[in-house]
Amino acid sequence: MSWQNNMKGLKRISEKPNDMVLMDLPEPRLPGDDWLKVKVSYAGICGSDIKMFHMDCSAPDSKLRPPVIPGHEFSGIVWEKGSAVHHVEVGDRVVCHTMVKPCGRCEYCLTGNWGLCRERKGIGSDINGAFAEFLVCPAKNAIKIPEELPLDTAALTEPLACSVRIVEEIGKIRRGEKAVIFGPGPIGACCAMTVRANGAVPVIVGTKHSRHRMEVLQDNGIQCFINDEKLPKNILDYFGGYADMAVDAVGKEAVFQSTFHVVKKLGRIVVGAIDESSTGYSVNMTKVFGSQIKVLPSCSSTPKGWHEALNLLSEHQDEFKKFISGSYPLEQWDRAFQKAESRDGFKIMLRP
Ligand SMILES: [Zn+2]
Ligand SMILES: [Zn+2]
């Protein structure tokens, strides 16, 4: 066996809650000639990373499969490539989508819905992710970062691609439409930017605890309201009618129920996040049927959405940069996680 370097990695070592340790690990090797080794530059901490951190992962349907290095929102530099890789070179700056080993044969794979394939694996959940100095991923997942886009902003590609799916691919936003987005976190903020890039008008709805975030959003020219009893009236006054589309970017049943108060007849409600601890939301089918409201789930992202997200980030990078509230070296991962969990900022990143 040839000599192998060590790297720092933040590893979930067991299924027990919070059992994550920063440790010296062997650098990963390319598992095939069509894979890349990437030096991670920035890795965003996702809400799902925090949820998983605290969760017992012994359940058979657990999304995290310890022992594993989490982290799925990243940018980096190609460090090594297999002999069959031609579309990127060593030294290229890349982002990589996280769907690995879809079977390619099932009806979901054949219709581009890889996220629903039973066999697919995820970087940062089933196989080692970006909370480490290096990771390996299939080369076909890598997309070059446009020259003008900095590496930190590029690490927002994954959450923005999820928002592109919510707003465009599932929500089918059209020019001139009006959209109310519940949840002023990173996904909600990215949804609002995507709505506006489509020539539609976004409003963000938060609570009085999200004032910091709303100030940043308002600084980007996005109208914000508090979710209280005055909300439907505020929406009516601001838009001159109810919204064509409402998005739940929080994942709480109470928020989902609020979306019905702001959406017009024939409108769409896109459920972009779900409370997984809930045993099931109740839906007022009389209202859904009578007002012909469409309730549409949106999960994960598509490769097409990743390309679009990179273009959006390049075009509006000054505005997106405001959604990065801090970055910490890997050694300070616990501080970074606390900061991300406090929700007083937007995206917190690690710098492995
Ligand atoms: Zn994420
Ligand atoms: Zn499949």
The chain-level mean pLDDT equals 95
Helix content: 25-40%
Main beta sheet strand tally, sense and closure:
7 strands, mixed
Q: In the CATH hierarchy, what is the superfamily of the largest domain?
A: Medium-chain alcohol dehydrogenases, catalytic domain
Could you name the CATH class of the largest domain? Alpha Beta
The number of helical segments is 12
Could you name the CATH topology of the largest domain?
Answer: Quinone Oxidoreductase, Chain A, domain 1
Question: Proportion of β residues?
Answer: 25-35%
Uncertain regions spanning at least 5 consecutive residues: none
Ligands, deduplicated: zinc ion
- Number of β-strand runs: 17
Count of structural domains: 2
Based on the structure given, which CATH architecture of the largest domain is correct? Alpha-Beta Complex
Structural class of the helices, strands and pairings?
Answer: alpha/beta
Q: Indicate the radius of gyration in whole angstroms.
A: 20 Å
From the spread of the alpha carbons, the general shape counts as: globular
Q: What is the chain-wise order of helices and strands?
A: EEEHEEEHEEEHHEHEHEHEHEHEHHEHE
Kindly report how far apart the N and C termini lie. 27 Å
Outline:
By secondary structure, the protein is an alpha/beta fold. The chain has twelve helices and 17 strands.
